[in-house]
Amino acid sequence: MVKGFEKMKIDRLLSIVILLLQRNRVQAKELADKYEVSIRTIYRDIEAISMAGIPVVTFQGANGGIGLMEGYRLDRSMLTDLDIKDIVMGLQSISSSLGGPNVSRLLNKFESIIPESGREQFSVRAAQFIVDHSGWGNQAAQEGKLIKVKEAMSQARTVAFTYRNAEGIITKRDVEPHTLVLKGQQWFVYAYCSDREQFRLFKLSRMSDPVVTETAFTRKDLSYEILPWNEGRMAAARAVQPFTLQFNRNSRHLAEDWFGVEALIEQTEGIYTVSVPFPEDAWAYGFILSLGPDVVVKEPAHLRDKIREMALRIASNYEAGPES
């Protein structure tokens, strides 16, 4: 019990140090609320951090708080082998999708600071969990677009491309790229579009012929505390409604893959239903159709009709034969 308590305290102390590295100064009450301890405990933690040789400064007055001496940086000795393993694992997942020599060099640097005696154990731990964001098949076209966008961001220059939106409308765009976003196994560029005079999210797969221009731009201040690319989906999420899907023996594995074993309700032998909340949009229609002929929409009734209509339209495309 004592060992567990000490570990919690050490984790809290390290977490406080990392937070202070990220922020100029923090109120003691904010720290107390964050870690669910008393303000007195926070001041004891600050004293312990100071005794460990980390220069903590307490500022008085209305805009006071707790901070670190200006210019202080975290020393390698503060990182455990487990910390480095987690960093390496994160870098490996980035490498699988972004690639490039810089990430590989950084991986080698982190791995090189592991003592020789612990290399084998470190390799075992690092291989226990692998995140691979890369897609199946040829990724050359997407990698080429990623390279162009990264180049434009690093040089603070606009990138021009042809864009085809979900409705099939083709436009020419010249945007200020700020952030590459990997979401739902798809790459997006969060960029300021001068034509629309606002930030927009562009899907890489819908871009063609990207070119880094000679036009420079000044990066705008952005707050990522609330991820701006989630706003549209969050608005859609407020309009979700429950869908009930029916699966049989042949499609049960699909239900388990997408929704988890615990979501299945067995109605009769070999027949299962899953109730899931979805915003009703083109993505939802496509997702349901992608589940195949062994999945049936039970509710709502209008969704049954919509999927039936779309399935009939798909079938009609094949009735006249390949010549048509």
From TrEMBL:
This is DNA-binding transcriptional regulator YafY. Residues 9-64 form the HTH deoR-type domain. One of its GO terms (molecular function) is DNA binding. InterPro entries: CBASS_pafABC_assoc_protein (IPR051534), DeoR_HTH (IPR001034), HTH_11 (IPR013196), PafC-like (IPR028349), WCX_dom (IPR057727), WH-like_DNA-bd_sf (IPR036388), WH_DNA-bd_sf (IPR036390), WYL_dom (IPR026881). Keywords: DNA-binding, Transcription, Transcription regulation. Pfam families: HTH_11, WCX, WYL. PROSITE patterns: HTH_DEOR_2, WYL. It comes from the Bacteria.
